Amino acid sequence: MFWVEIVLVILILGSTVFYLACAWFTAQFFLAPQPSGRLAQEPVSILAPICGLDEGAIENWTSLCTQTYSTYEVLFGVIDPDDPAIPVLNQLQAQFPDRVQIFIGLPPRGINHKDSTLSYLLEKAKYETLIFVDSDIRVQPDYIQTVTAPLDRVDVVTCAYIAHNPQFFPAAIASLGRCCDFIPSALIARAIDQGLQFAIGVTIAVRRSTLMNFGGLQLNRIGSDHNLGKRAAKAGYKVELSQLVLESDTGSESLSDLFQRELRWSRTIRFNKGNIYYTMIFCYGTVFCFPLLLVSNFSTWAIALSSVTYVIRYTQAFITIFSMKSPALLRWFWALPIRDALSLIIWAIGGVGRTAYWRGRKLRIEGDGIIQQI
């Protein structure tokens, strides 16, 4: 048991370093003064691929159409002519006829249906400055100005997202993962790589010419948003994370849906990052405390180490939650150990296998992220 104890202690100590780094880089990023934005407002095209009717869809899409911005258009694209979202989109177009365009029945050009739909919208967009958005986010009235303002000094702007006040347990688990782990990890990677090396699909702001220069959209890749930022950075363009944290509440989805989505994300990271993925074993120290207590027969030193680990983890979570102005998440603090255990399970399963489920389709991942439909 001695060597088991040694391994567990190493994993726990590594995790405490990770937790401390998460707290430091998150506070440093979100509490730093935000650079002033552009005074000029260039016309903007918002491109939104739609598949199905998510909870709160009409409120989400209306928020895109009620921006305090001078000139912009919102383009929605749908593959299935019988998609249940179409009546809602028609209602939205009737309400904002000069702003909203809808394109229905867009046959897939590749296995990645999201980027396939975006490719059609890109051909229809009138303006040079583009914002790609996911359909399940809700934005504030100054959203366009906020995410495009950095384009005078960087080339690609992306945003993170959480549910600031989730009402259901699976949504809270999802939000804790994004707030306490994903966003802090992204900021650590940003510091190590001296710049962001990926993008997040909920929002990507970029000029059309820049997008074309580093290869445009890719229609047969898992995690194409992640890969878009990776290609931009490799081509010498600067990718930056906005301080704006978007609202995205998964509502009353099931734990099974959450598991399948995060497993897909996990494999996306693995195929895009390679062996770096396996260093994430040092992110789950709170979970390793339980086997350490068991194999050490609840020795005093193991209890002390576990207690310190939990104090550091909860302090880090507290700092990240308040850095992102999400105090309502504190009422779900009791679920943090469950979140950590689920994250470890998803990481372990995501470390093997090549399949992913996406909007009801089963996909196989090849090479560095190319997908085929099974």
Give the overall silhouette.
globular
How far the N terminus sits from the C terminus, by CA atoms, comes to 44 Å
Written as H for each helix and E for each strand, in order along the chain, the element string is HEHEHEHEHEHEHHEHHHHEEE
Q: What is the CATH superfamily of the largest domain?
A: Spore Coat Polysaccharide Biosynthesis Protein SpsA, Chain A
Helix content: 40-55%
Average of per-residue pLDDT values: 93
Rg from Cα? 21 Å
DSSP E strands, number: 10
CATH fold call of the largest domain: Spore Coat Polysaccharide Biosynthesis Protein SpsA, Chain A
Number of domain units: 2
Binned strand content: 15-25%
Alpha plus pi helix count:
12
Largest sheet: 7 strands, mixed
Q: Which CATH-level-2 architecture of the largest domain?
A: Alpha-Beta Complex
